[in-house]
UniProtKB/TrEMBL annotation:
<keyword id="KW-0285">Flavoprotein</keyword>
<dbReference type="GO" id="GO:0071949">
    <property type="term" value="F:FAD binding"/>
</dbReference>
<dbReference type="InterPro" id="IPR016164">
    <property type="entry name" value="FAD-linked_Oxase-like_C"/>
</dbReference>
<protein>
    <recommendedName>
        <fullName>FAD-binding PCMH-type domain-containing protein</fullName>
    </recommendedName>
</protein>
<dbReference type="Pfam" id="PF02913">
    <property type="entry name" value="FAD-oxidase_C"/>
</dbReference>
<dbReference type="InterPro" id="IPR016169">
    <property type="entry name" value="FAD-bd_PCMH_sub2"/>
</dbReference>
<dbReference type="InterPro" id="IPR016166">
    <property type="entry name" value="FAD-bd_PCMH"/>
</dbReference>
<dbReference type="InterPro" id="IPR004113">
    <property type="entry name" value="FAD-bd_oxidored_4_C"/>
</dbReference>
<feature type="domain" description="FAD-binding PCMH-type">
    <location>
        <begin position="1"/>
        <end position="49"/>
    </location>
</feature>
<dbReference type="GO" id="GO:0003824">
    <property type="term" value="F:catalytic activity"/>
</dbReference>
<keyword id="KW-0274">FAD</keyword>
<dbReference type="InterPro" id="IPR051914">
    <property type="entry name" value="FAD-linked_OxidoTrans_Type4"/>
</dbReference>
Length: 268
């Protein structure tokens, strides 16, 4: 349910599973983030959670090795529930912040995959296939978390990385760039080049299956007057690779001055 600027109340979608009548404006309203109308009511479809799951953590010596794996899953029809990239040092910072331990001790970069299914065989078959791809492409260790407590620990450490970084007060900005998944390796290569160019470290987490990365340029760049230049370089490389400067967080006011970098500013 949406209230339009005219004051008119309009309903899009609803409890129907299918509806081909009229224009499909539902996602237009959702995507407009309140600029075309105020959403006053929403109906969600709930899907039962699969009864079986496991979490796989693959460890790599280098970031680029970890990134190589992400685009290799889809062509083999392997679609995990989630695939998360994390720098090892960020895992340790978050684990310390939470008073727990990150289970993977080897490597400098990790990707963890969550596999879910209706049977144990389905879940473990998918996990084994992912593990095989990782091992064939440079993984130095692959761990499988089977118990709920082990899986929850990994997810909690991942989920609190930003909070742990904020507690350290070391981050200049949390970015939200996104490229086509096949361009993920090139994007990480560009980030490594930018690190070298500005003699800095840019910690990275991200959703590797979606091509969505969260580089976090450090506050020391602001102290050197370089933070905005580093962000602009990252954004330019992202757009050059066919990406966008925000994949899931939205623009808000903080990113608006960067929108002219987009090839077609008319959509803003």
């Amino acid at each position: 349910e949406v209230v339009l600027p005219t004051g008119e109340i309009v309903t899009f979608g609803g409890k129907l599973i299918k509806n081909a009548m009229g224009l499909d404006l539902l996602h237009l309203m959702i995507g407009s983030e309140g600029t075309l109308g105020v959403i006053t009511k929403a109906v969600f479809r709930l899907i039962p959670k699969s009864p079986y799951s496991c979490t796989l953590v693959a460890s790599f010596n280098e970031r680029l090795e970890a990134m190589k794996v992400a685009p290799l899953l889809a062509p083999q029809m392997i679609i995990p529930l989630a695939g998360e990239y994390i720098d090892h040092d960020l895992c340790e910072i978050s684990a310390k912040y939470l008073g727990t331990e990150w289970p993977a001790k080897k490597g400098n970069a990790h990707i963890f995959y969550i596999c879910m299914g209706e049977t144990e065989d389905e879940v473990y078959s998918q996990a084994e296939a992912i593990a095989k791809i990782c091992e064939e492409n440079g993984a130095i260790d692959v761990l499988m978390a089977e118990t709920r407590a082990e899986q929850d620990n990994i997810l909690k450490i991942r989920g609190e990385i930003a909070s742990a970084q904020k507690a350290e007060d070391s981050v200049g900005d949390f970015l939200d760039i996104c490229v086509p998944p096949v361009k993920l390796i090139e994007l990480m290569e560009r980030i490594l080049e930018i690190e070298k160019k500005y003699d800095t470290r840019i910690p990275v987490t991200g959703h590797s299956v979606d091509g969505n990365l969260h580089p976090t340029p450090l506050k020391e760049l602001a102290d050197r007057g370089l933070l905005e230049k580093v962000k602009e370089d990252i954004y330019k490389e992202t757009i050059r690779l066919g990406g966008v400067i925000s994949g899931e967080h939205g623009l808000g006011t903080i990113r608006l001055h960067n929108t002219p970098l987009w090839p077609d500013p008319k959509i803003w």
